[in-house]
Amino acid sequence: MDKEIKVEVIRNEPVKPSTPTPNHLRSYRFSLVDQILPVYHTPVVLFYSSSNPSTDEPHTIASQTSQLLRKSLSQTLTKFPQFAGRIRENLSVECNDEGADFIEARINTPLSKILKKPDSETIKLLIPKSNATKYEVAAACMLAVQANFFECGGIAIGVCLSHKLADASTLCTFINSWAETTSESGIKFEIPQLDSSSLFPPHDSLASRQSPVEVEESAVTRLVFDASRIAALKSKVGSAMVKNPTRVEAVMALIWKCGMEAKRSSSGRDHHCSSVMYESVNIRKRLVPNLPENSVGNLAWTYAVKIEPENEIELQELVSLHRKAIGEFIESCEERLRWEATCRHTSEMNDFIKSGDIDTFMSTSWCRFPYYEVNFGWGKPIWVCMATVPAKNLVFLIDTKDGDGIEAWLALSAEEMTFFERNQELLAFASLNPSAI
Length: 437
Fold this sequence. Notes:
Blueprint: E1 7-15, E2 27-29, H1 32-36, E3 41-48, H2 58-76, E4 86-88, E5 92-94, E6 100-107, H3 111-116, H4 120-123, H5 135-140, E7 143-150, E8 155-162, H6 168-183, H7 196-199, E9 219-225, H8 227-237, H9 247-267, E10 275-282, E11 300-307, H10 315-331, H11 333-336, H12 339-354, E12 359-365, E13 383-386, E14 394-399, E15 406-412, H13 414-420, H14 424-427, E16 431-432
Parallel strand pairs: 6-7, 10-12, 12-14
Antiparallel strand pairs: 1-6, 2-5, 3-8, 3-13, 4-5, 7-8, 9-15, 9-16, 10-11, 14-15
């Protein structure tokens, strides 16, 4: 019988910036996007086969590596003083150098045990505080890190960063900057500090808004689409309207269709009801002038793709609707981020989510963000994943290690998931939770 996986916390202490934050940088003003976003820490875990190839005693290596990570994190925080601060109402972060949480933990199992059959509940053990999506954690700190050392010498770095300050791109930029500082590789990640509050001014009426994300009880599944199956799927969903669909368009359309069908089967309905998919998009290259890709902040927004199916749902139609919706978003991106438009958008989204008559999904894609380039000095990660899927009907996409495939995580109700995972059209293109190594 396999022994239970246990996490032993060796050290839990704050890490402060290595030099005090100058007075002129001690207040980080929220943008309108920051204000609207819920209180939530985005969690990611990066797995490495070994942190040190030496033959030293494993606990000695873990202690030395942990000390190196704490030192480099302290140095990195001087470039990101807002990540070591604390929220003041819903208007700003006081960059008071209180620091980030750093946890050193030891795991009583080899890394391969987790990677051979990934399980979301086990992966949660590898991030700081398993309730990292709760409001109390967000109030305590902006950034929390957990360095997990396995008995085989493997290591997993769990990072939770407040979504009030950072989108997926910024999270990736921060981790790469920290890794570069740790490895002293000489590769410099430029950090364009952007005053996003000047682009999207905050609104005083939102000063008291602190909307926590409560983790919903749900069933979570993991799907892997390799390059050959994605090529076949793209060929199937292409049409005269969209001759060359992207990887993300093809995979998202299939998951959305199978999700709608699972909801229909679970509810016992004899028809499909209306559905909307809210997709997140990086706006750095959508603004005029363009912003650098590694600009720091929340520089993403959502747009809606809606369908009112009369009969069977066609994948080609879903892809065409997506392409049309993203085109309309790009044409009016800056207008949609003005106060009145954001109010309408968030109100409509909340109404859809609460409605029992509309199947509502949300999606986010981390594809093409260089998470697999994060090298702390002991090689690139062998696997990267989001540690939790915080809400039902949320789809999360990330590249596979080779950069050509896509890994998808999805949360549904337990009953819906039983239908979803048996969908033969889905299983023709996706592998259900294969080994990550």
